[in-house]
Amino acid sequence: MTDNSRMDLVPIGLIHTPYSSRKDAPHQGRDSQEICEIELFSEYAHGLLDLERCTHLIVLYWLHLADRCCLIARPPRDGKEHGVFATRTPNRPNPIALDIVELLEVDGRRLKVRGMDALDGSTLLDIKPYSSGIDNIEGARIGWHE
Ligand SMILES: C[S@@+](CC[C@H](N)C(=O)[O-])C[C@H]1O[C@@H](n2cnc3c(N)ncnc32)[C@H](O)[C@@H]1O
Fold first, then answer.
1. Are 12 and 124 in contact (CB under 8 A)?
2. For ligand 1, which residues put their CB under 6 angstroms from it?
3. 11: closest CA among 128, 94, 123, 120?
């Protein structure tokens, strides 16, 4: 039996991108046309059943080079200080990133996607289908971006 009260994360795969350093990666994958590859470890491949029927995915990955001590960030957008939880900074106590990507191809346990901002070799934590019906909130905004 799995003890679900323990907060254990298991790597379920690897992300392959052209970005070898933090400055090479786009701030948001949404801004990039680059095609990247997500490789699921074989023991999780069965979980891909029906995935090819999804157009877009939510990809959660581990920011392994992040600074986990920061609570204040200074994003490039305005150069001003904001609490990390009001930003998308990679430096945060639990460095989990979220990318919404376009699914281009499923080849066994390898997925070709567009829209990643992960460094090459980042650890895959989870994949969920993105749905405009479930996830899109018309007019949602970040006040300090304006
Ligand atoms: C601003 S964060 C946004 C991440 C995700 N789209 C989000 O909103 O949660 C993206 C930046 O994180 C950095 N990054 C990517 N992979 C990383 C990793 N494995 N460890 C630390 N930093 C990483 C890169 O500099 C990239 O430009």
1. yes
2. 22, 25-29, 63-66, 88-90, 97-99, 117-119, 122
3. 123
Q: Domains in the chain, start-ordered, CATH in brackets?
A: 13-66+94-130 (2.40.30.70)
Q: Which amino acid is at 93?
A: P
Residue 59 CA, ligand 1 centroid: distance in Å: 12
Asked whether residue 3 carries a pLDDT value surpassing 90, the answer given is no
pLDDT level of residue 25 (50, 70, 90 thresholds): very high
pTM of the model: 0.97
Segment 101-129, tens digit of pLDDT: 999 999 999 999 999 999 999 999 999 99
